[in-house]
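Retro notes, item 3 of 5
We never archived the inputs for the zinc ion complex last cycle. Fixing that now. Sequence and ligand:
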Amino acid sequence: MASTQGKKRPGSGTAVRHAAGRRPRPNASGSGGGRKTGPRDSVFLPLLTVWIVVLLLLVIVLYWTRGSLFRTAVPGAKGRETAAAVPAPERQASPPKTSSKDSPPPSSPEGSAFETGDKKGREGETPKGSAVVASVPKVAPEPPVAPLPPAKPPAGRAALVIDDFGYDIKIARKFINLPVAMTFSVLPHLPHTEEVAALASRHGHEVLLHMPMEPHGYPKSDPGRGALLVAMTPQEMVAEIDKALKENPYARGINNHMGSKFTEDADAMRVVLRHLKERGFYYLDSYTSPQSVGMAVARDLGMPCLKRDIFLDHEPTEDFVRRQVAELIRRAKIEGRAVGIGHPYPVTLKVLEQEAETFEKEGIEIVPLKKLLDGPAAANGGKAGA
Ligand SMILES: [Zn+2]
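Structure as it came back at the time:
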């Protein structure tokens, strides 16, 4: 708009100059003897005044047009300057801006105005754009910080329970030295029962009582010394539990060794779990029978409980254990928590040593078993009938 005005004015100016160009002739001849000829003077003087007035008008017009051009050009130029100056730090800051976009609540409303204003400013110099650009400096000092890694919550938590400790102290020591939180479930009445329980506890690992219980196929299938049998009286059951706990005073939880028959018996399970609940124990159902009523009885008693999700090594090969570890991770991601049970086999030790970093990479936090009871996920430890 301003530029077209500016062009028109010089055009009219030249028109005037043409008119004036004709005048110098009378002016030039008039300078010699203009005063002598009266009628010529009478024509010349008004012409001169007209010429001067025209010149003055021309000067005024030129001054006005240049002035107005200048005036209109300045804000535009200024706007362009700031618009050009602003995106420079702004562009550097754009990566953190997108990250702040990922987490919308903390970013101020100014921040979002800043973003849209910037886009408009680059597309075209609309007055709106320049108006938003003016608000930029408020936000500009904030962004130059490198994008913060978002505080990632763990994808899930898992517990690694190793059953059947008490036979071999050497392998137990190796499991104790694994760089992840292990849960040691120790059988009663074995050569190294007390030693393994004490050692694991001293190293900060969690300890369980791995209570032998009657399996289907008993006595051919032997759960070992001190096993709980469905034919026992409640007193006999309680006495067996207390004997086992004397050797393993570090235990705060119990899980069943074998017990496919015993855990299907609600009355027997009620006797056992009630006794342990009174001592502040929690219950891990090893889930050796799909008909186990352990979880249902524990819940009924108001006892903290959870259920084994994955057996890690019932096929003791490296490939199999690795696949089971991957499955444990998958389960922990889906359900928020998962319990894996393994055994003190060299292959299990080897795979856990190798996979210790995988848990971290996958965002899975390996925790002592009882920590899984704290979260809300502990409530879904059931599905025992599944
Ligand atoms: Zn066992």
